[in-house]
């Protein structure tokens, strides 16, 4: 049974079709990779899944309930967290405060307990030493991890990630990918836009391929990555790297 | 599990270091309030009614500016009708005490609640417009409030205002000495500082700051952006209402000319001079404006020029001249 699903989504912007009858779903413990070239509708799909965008047609379901009209804040309160393609953080505030914002909807009310959760999450992401630092001083990779910490700290039911390993390299990207796989295994339904096919092959349970707003392929990771749809867009997805990883 | 022991120790050390940093920050924060109290005592030691009067104005402006710091500093909403909310508080106190004979002390909660409601109504505009447009819309709202203050003569007294607001009475003693009035204003100011400090450190304060930084980010974390904005405007109004009550009961009169757009600009200057989100620096901004007003009161032309310069400064701040956002026009 799916936990977070988009059913028959269609959306266009000024005559350009961004999504056309797109249906995707992620069940508890599933990490669904979303692949596609630039302009294929990936971010539009993520925006719709997280209530940032109300689609022209179709609906968003959380636990089988239609939540299309709930909006971004409403979906966040229901346990849908997200990260952004370009990191969005409170620049003049500290790392700790930024992660603390992820607990805005959490049932934990005591400040001390909240701070302990923040500490634990920063530690899990290997950035405990950044706690008191102001976000605007951080590198791109550090910012990416702070954003991830903020999304994860509230123990969301569903998580939608827009290129979570962008800007991270080698062991750092690997560590974040493993962390996300672990989060999914704990029962969280996850969607993840990702260009690094190595990461997709390693952690995703299923993959959806979008092209010009259409779902051109979806299914188990290995089968989809070996299929024609990925081959057709491999130039933009770093297929060489995938082949190197899977070899 | 011998192998995991060093990791556990390392984790505990990191948590300890983070907790120590937070404790130091808390200590620094806690040292500020006693410092403020000491500074607030100083005017009481100077046997001059004039100094006490200026200090009272500074304290009243401080309460007003702290309210503006909620809506601008924490929530990032640039409004230009704060003087109107100040006026609502003052008129509530004046009308109830002078026209209806209510004990002036009892008019304080009414002034706060009415100004908070007016603030929330003003905040409705922030649900539809933002940035400079919000400033223009609220500027117009402030002018409308002025029209009501001047035009609703049977209630507000029109251009004459309310000339005879009864003085506060404490156990049979009338509070009319400048030093006593200053002490009262200073007490309200300390209370306002404590409230704002707590607000800033709370989850609600963090949510307001997230709206200031990025409304999309705030919504993605479950912050009800519209609702939080309305509450910020209402809180801001509550502070302004308390300041208005202080002004009306201290001066013993309410005059519509006090609550015009010039005062709104001055409040913006008080807050922006300091850096909008810094509670204690905002008080320095308020004191600076009060002292400057007093020094220039005998030089009306210079005062007008200073106000003009203040307006230019606010516009320049909005265009980002004082920040890294500014780029010269090509």
UniProtKB/TrEMBL annotation, chain A:
Residues 4-237 form the ABC transporter domain. Keywords: ATP-binding, Nucleotide-binding, Transport. The keyword Nucleotide-binding applies. PROSITE patterns: ABC_TRANSPORTER_1, ABC_TRANSPORTER_2. It comes from the Bacteria. The keyword Isomerase does not apply. GO terms for cellular component: plasma membrane. One of its GO terms (molecular function) is ATP hydrolysis activity. This is ATP-binding cassette domain-containing protein. It comes from Candidatus Amunia macphersoniae.
């Amino acid at each position: 049974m799916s936990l977070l699903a988009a059913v028959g989504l269609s959306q266009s912007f000024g005559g350009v079709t961004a999504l056309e009858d797109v249906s995707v779903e992620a069940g508890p413990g599933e990490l669904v990779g979303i692949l596609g070239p630039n302009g294929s509708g990936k971010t539009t799909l993520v925006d719709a899944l997280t209530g940032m965008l109300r689609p022209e047609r179709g609906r968003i379901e959380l636990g089988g309930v239609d939540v299309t009209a709930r909006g971004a804040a409403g979906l966040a309160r229901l346990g849908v967290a997200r990260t952004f393609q370009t990191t969005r953080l409170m620049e003049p505030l500290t790392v700790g405060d930024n992660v603390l914002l992820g607990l805005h909807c959490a049932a934990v009310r005591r400040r001390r307990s909240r701070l302990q959760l923040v500490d634990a999450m920063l530690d899990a992401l290997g950035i405990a030493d950044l706690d008191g630092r102001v976000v605007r001083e951080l590198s791109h990779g550090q910012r990416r991890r702070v954003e991830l910490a903020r999304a994860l700290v509230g123990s969301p039911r569903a998580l939608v990630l827009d290129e979570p390993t962008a800007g991270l390299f080698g062991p750092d990207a690997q560590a974040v990918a493993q962390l996300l796989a672990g989060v999914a295994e704990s029962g969280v339904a996850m969607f993840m836009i990702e260009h690094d096919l190595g990461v997709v092959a390693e952690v995703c349970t299923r993959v959806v391929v979008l092209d010009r707003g259409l779902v051109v392929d979806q299914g188990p990771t290995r089968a989809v990555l070996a299929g024609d749809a990925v081959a057709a867009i491999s130039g933009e997805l770093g297929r060489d790297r995938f082949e190197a990883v899977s070899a | 599990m011998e192998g995991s022991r060093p990791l556990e120790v390392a984790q505990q050390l990191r948590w300890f270091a983070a907790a120590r940093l937070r404790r130091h920050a808390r200590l620094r924060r806690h040292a500020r309030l006693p410092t403020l109290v000491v500074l607030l005592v100083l005017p009481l030691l100077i046997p001059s009614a004039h100094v006490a009067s200026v200090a009272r104005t500074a304290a009243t402006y401080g309460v007003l500016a702290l309210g503006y710091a909620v809506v601008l500093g924490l929530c990032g909403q640039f409004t230009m009708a704060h003087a109107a909310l100040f006026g609502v508080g003052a008129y509530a106190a004046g009308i109830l005490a002078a026209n209806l004979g209510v004990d002036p002390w009892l008019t304080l909660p009414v002034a706060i609640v009415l100004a908070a409601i007016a603030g929330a109504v003003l905040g409705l505009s922030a649900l539809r417009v933002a940035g400079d447009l919000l400033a223009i819309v609220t500027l117009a709202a402030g002018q409308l409030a002025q029209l009501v203050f001047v035009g609703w003569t049977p209630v507000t007294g029109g251009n004459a205002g309310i000339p005879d607001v009864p003085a506060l009475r404490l156990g049979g003693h009338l509070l009319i000495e400048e030093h006593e009035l200053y002490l009262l204003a200073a007490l309200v100011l300390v209370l306002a500082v404590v409230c704002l400090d707590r607000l800033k450190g709370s989850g609600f304060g963090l949510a307001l700051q997230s709206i200031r930084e990025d409304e999309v980010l705030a919504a993605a974390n479950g912050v009800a952006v519209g609702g939080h904005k309305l509450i910020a405007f209402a809180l801001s109004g509550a502070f302004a209402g308390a300041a208005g009550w202080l002004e009306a009961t201290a001066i013993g009169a309410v005059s519509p000319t006090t609550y015009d757009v010039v005062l709104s600009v001055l409040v913006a200057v008080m807050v922006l001079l300091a850096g909008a989100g810094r509670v204690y620096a905002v008080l320095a901004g308020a004191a600076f404006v009060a002292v400057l007003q007093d020094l220039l009161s005998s030089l009306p032309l210079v005062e007008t020029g200073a106000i003009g310069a203040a307006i230019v400064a606010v516009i320049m701040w909005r265009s980002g001249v004082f920040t890294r956002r500014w780029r010269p026009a090509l």
